[in-house]
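Archive transcription. Copying these from loose printouts into the bound notebook so they stop getting lost. Printout 1 of 2:
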Amino acid sequence: MDGHHDGRSRPVVSARALVNSVDKPAVCLMGPTASGKTEIAISLCQRFPFDIVSVDSALVYRGMDIGTAKPDAKTLRDTPHRLIDIRDPEESYSAGDFVRDARIEMNAIHSAGRVPLLVGGTMMYFRALMRGIAELPSADEQIRAAIDADAAELGWPAMHGRLCEVDPTAAERIDPNDSQRIQRALEVYLASGRPLSDWHRSMPAQQWPVDVRFIRLALQPASRAILHERIERRLDRMLHGGFLDEVRTLMRRPQLNRDTPSMRAVGYRQIWEHLAGECTFAEGRYRALVATRQLAKRQITWLRSEQELFSFDPLESLTIDAISENLANLLNRA
C-alpha cells in the first residue's frame, strides 16, 4: 500500500490504496470525557482519508448540544460527523441500534474508498461493535414504565437489589446507581423470564465480516489531576454558555422526564434536579462535576482492561504527530 509524507512531515495514506486493500480498516479513537477526542479526530481527518462516525450515546440526541459538548455547526460543516442528531430526546437508543447504524455508515464510507474513524467515549458501543452483541428482547414500554414507577418510589439502589435476586451475575457488573443498565436488565428478565446474563451466554453474537480490521487508539491521560481540571473548566464553560437554558427547554417537552434515557446523560440529570428545586445551583454543579469525574474513571478503567490498544497521552504537545506516525504504518500494511 502506498503512503507518503507531505511537505509538513504529516503522514498521509492514499484513498486509492485503501480501495485496493485486502481488508477494510476502521480506526477507533477512544478516550475519557474531556480528553480532547474531537480535536484530535479533526486533525486526523486533515491528514488521512477519514470520515468520522460518532460513538457517543448522548450526541445522537437533537437539542442536547451544550451539555454534551457537541461540535458546533461550523465544525460539523467542515468535518461532518455521522450518527449525531439522529434521535429526539424522548426516544431510546440502544447499543444494538448503534451497531446497526454504525455498520451502515461504515459500509458507505468503505464503499467511497475512505476509512471510518469511530470517535467517542461510550465504551459499551465500542465493545458491541467490535465483539458483537446478543439479540436481546426488544424494549417494552409498559414494563419499562412500571420499573420507572417503582424506582421513583424506592430508588435505583433498591431496584439493583431486585436485580441481585433475579440476575446476580448482571448485578455484579452494574453499579447500584446505574439506572439505565439496571432498568434494561430488569426489563429483559421481566419480558422474557430469562436473566440478561443468560441471554449473553447463550445467544450467538453478531460478528463482523473477516475483512474488517479494527485499529484501536486510546487516549489515556497520565495525569488524572489535569484531566479533572479540564473536566471542571469544561463544565463551567457549559454552565456559562447556556446549559441551564438548554435543560429548561428540554424540561418543557411533555413526554420527557428525568428518567428518560437521554436525561440520564452526565450533567443533564444533575441540572434537572437543580431546576426542579431539589438542590441549589452550587449543589447541582458539584453533583454534575462528581458524576463526570466518575464517568471518566469508568472509561479509563475500561480502556486499561482492553488488549491490543495503541495508547497515547492526549495532554502531551506532540500527541497528534505520534498518532499520525503510528496510523501511517498501520494503514500501510499490505
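Printout 2 of 2:
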Amino acid sequence: MTARELAATLEVSMRTVYRDVEALGAAGVPIHMERGALGGIVLADDYRRALAQFSTDELQALFASGPGPLADIGMATPAAALQKLAGALPAMQRRAAESSRDRLFVDHNRWSRAEQPTEVLVALRKAAEENRRVRMQYRDRSGTATNRVIDPLGLVAKAGVWYAISREGDKGYRTFRAERIQRVDVLPETFVRPADFVLEAYWSESVSTIERQTQETFDVVLRVENAALPKVTSFWEHAILAEEAASTTLRVGFPSRDVALAQIIVLGASALDILSPPGIPAAIVARAADAIARYGSSANEIVMPASAKPK
C-alpha cells in the first residue's frame, strides 16, 4: 500500500506513516518502501505468514514456561520476549496464547534449589563470550576453598542449577558448580577456544558418565523433613517419589552402603524415616551398639583444661 492509502485507512497523517515505518524497521520488522508507480510500503510476505503458521499446541508450548534459568545469567526473561511475540500474533492466536498462561505452567527449577549466584554467572557468561581467562575462588563439597585460573568455555543449567564448563591448565576440562564459586575476577588475558570442543556434546557425555556411576550406587528410600532436605539433595543424586506438606520421599543414590549409613546417622532419626531397604535400620542400631560399647563408660566424663581444674 502507498503511504497515502495507509494514512487514509488509519486516519493519520502521511508524516506519521513514514515515522512509524522507520520505527518498525529499527525494531527489526521487515518493512520497507519501494519506489515507482506500483511501489508503496511493503511488509515481507513471510513475516505474517510465519507467525500465522503456529499451531495452538506450539503456542501453548511457548507461553507455558515459567521464569527460566536464563534470568540467572542476566539475559532477558522469556516473559519479555514472549510479550513481544504476542503483540505480533493475529488476534485469534494471541487470545489462545494468553489463555494458555492460566492453564499450563512449567517450572524449570527443582525443589529446594539454592540461590544461584547471578553476578558470578553474568561475569562467567561474558568471559566465555570474549574468551577471557578468569581467576576464581571455589569452595568444594568438603568446604575447602581454593583459587583457580580457568578458561570458561560455557554454562549449563541442569534442573535450575548452573555449572561452569571450563578448562583448567593441564588438568583439562572441568565442571564447577556455580553456587560454590565465591568470587570471579575476569583477567585481561585471553585464551584460544579448543576447535573441537562442543558444549552440548561434552555435557551429554558427562551426564552419561554420572548416570552410569549412579546405576552402581547404593539406593535408599527416605522420607525427609523438608527443613533437612537440602542436606541430602545438595550432595547426593536423588529422585523425588512423593511430596507432602512437611516432608518429601525420595530415592537417594549413595556411593556405598557405608556412606549411606554414615549420612543417615548424621542427619538423625528426628529428620527422616528409612523406608527401604529393610536392613538399614538394623545396621544403624548395630553401629550405635558398637559406639555405646566403646564409648559408653566415658560418656559422663567432662574433660577440663588444667588451668580450670580445682586445686
